[in-house]
Specification:
Strand content: under 5%
Shape: elongated
Order of helices and strands: HHHHHHH
Structural class: mainly alpha
Largest sheet: none
């Protein structure tokens, strides 16, 4: 009876951790939605578990075949995996904009010092 109640209680407590570990964007979504304490707690617990055991909480719950399926599904959701040419164009655009901004900052610093 104790084990059954313990399993049910752990199921309720860990369901949020399991659900948040399956999201692609991670704890940032929780912070945006106003669940900062829950998101930070889940992230801290996940980090602690991984440091102590060497496995993520997801690896403790799923078997190796399920983990491979999860990783392939996650890779399919990654836009850089689906269209690498689009991702490379975006990265190039970001690099160009960063270079322009750095040059503007250098120019401002030069003008202020003179």
């Amino acid at each position: 009876m104790r084990k059954t109640i313990g399993l049910i209680l752990m199921g309720f407590l860990l369901s949020g951790c399991y659900a948040s570990s399956l999201t692609y964007i991670g704890t940032g979504a929780g912070l945006i939605q106003g669940k900062s304490v829950q998101s930070l707690g889940a992230h801290a617990a996940s980090y602690t578990i991984q440091k102590k055991t060497g496995k993520s909480p997801l690896e403790h719950v799923l078997n190796p075949k399920q983990i491979r399926t999860y990783k392939t599904t996650k890779a399919k959701l990654n836009p850089c995996e689906q269209t690498p040419e689009l991702c490379s164009k975006i990265n190039l655009r970001v690099a160009v904009v960063n270079k322009i901004l750095k040059n503007k900052n250098k120019l401002k610093a030069f003008k202020v010092s003179n």
